[in-house]
Design goal:
binds guanosine-5'-monophosphate, 204 residues, Rossmann fold, 8 helices, 4-stranded mixed sheet, disordered C terminus, 9 strands, alpha/beta, 5-stranded parallel sheet, 21% strand
Length: 204
């Protein structure tokens, strides 16, 4: 599917539900969505993004991200639902797997930044935008340091970006605060279900 086709496709007519999950790095988005999927099963699926960033220790290509070179990313551009520069690397969501999962009635979650979130909103007006806040910027910094994955300059850049994202998140539909993992998993699961995540039942 090229970008023209992706733009023209009536995303809102597909039976599944598209959800954007954003939040500062270290706010716990990945852990949260993995826990919700463990709980509710494959009717909720996580989209796998392409990125030009290098894999971190323990990350698996094709499971965490499709790790590509800048040239490979440019070749993919026409097939992306959204894309953005974040922390000096380029990230994007391949459109076709998302379309296919929505056509199958799944609830598809994109774990992406706010720039991408607003691009999705303009293409798919009925997408649900969910923002996960860390309890405070201090806690966020502690979590980034504890993760041990980034040097000081990278952590500083991520914190600057976090301030911008928190401001931008005012335009999101749902705000969650990840101060306690279990209650945040409950809140996210309740936000995603009961809902029409592919079971054909109107729970309202
Ligand atoms: P990380 O490098 O820590 O995995 O992700 C950095 C940031 O990029 C996070 O805010 C993450 O949500 C965002 N991100 C990951 N994949 C995508 C994507 O496909 N599109 C956009 N716009 N942001 C993404």
């Amino acid at each position: 599917m090229n970008s023209e086709k992706a733009g023209k496709l009536d995303w809102n007519s597909l039976p599944g539900r598209l959800v954007v999950l954003s939040g500062a790095s270290g706010a716990g988005k990945s852990t949260l969505i993995d826990r919700v999927i463990e709980r509710v099963g494959p009717k909720v699926r996580r989209s796998i993004s392409a990125t030009t960033r290098a894999p971190r220790e323990g990350e698996v290509p094709g499971r965490d991200y499709f790790f590509v070179s800048p040239q490979e990313f440019e070749a993919l551009r026409d097939d992306l639902l959204e894309s953005a520069e974040v922390h000096g690397a380029t990230y994007g969501t391949p459109a076709e797997p998302v379309r296919k999962a929505l056509a199958e009635g799944a609830c598809v979650v994109l774990v992406i930044d706010v720039q991408g979130g607003f691009q999705v909103r303009s293409k798919v007006p009925n997408a649900l935008l969910v923002f996960v806040q860390a309890p405070s910027l201090e806690v966020l910094e502690q979590r980034l340091r504890a993760r041990g994955a980034d040097d000081d300059a990278t952590i500083a850049r991520r914190l600057t970006n976090a301030r911008y994202e928190i401001e931008a998140a005012r335009g999101y539909d749902v705000q969650l605060v990840n101060d306690d993992l279990e209650s945040c998993v409950d809140a996210l699961a309740a936000t995603l279900a009961p809902d029409p995540c592919g079971d054909g039942i109107d729970h309202d």
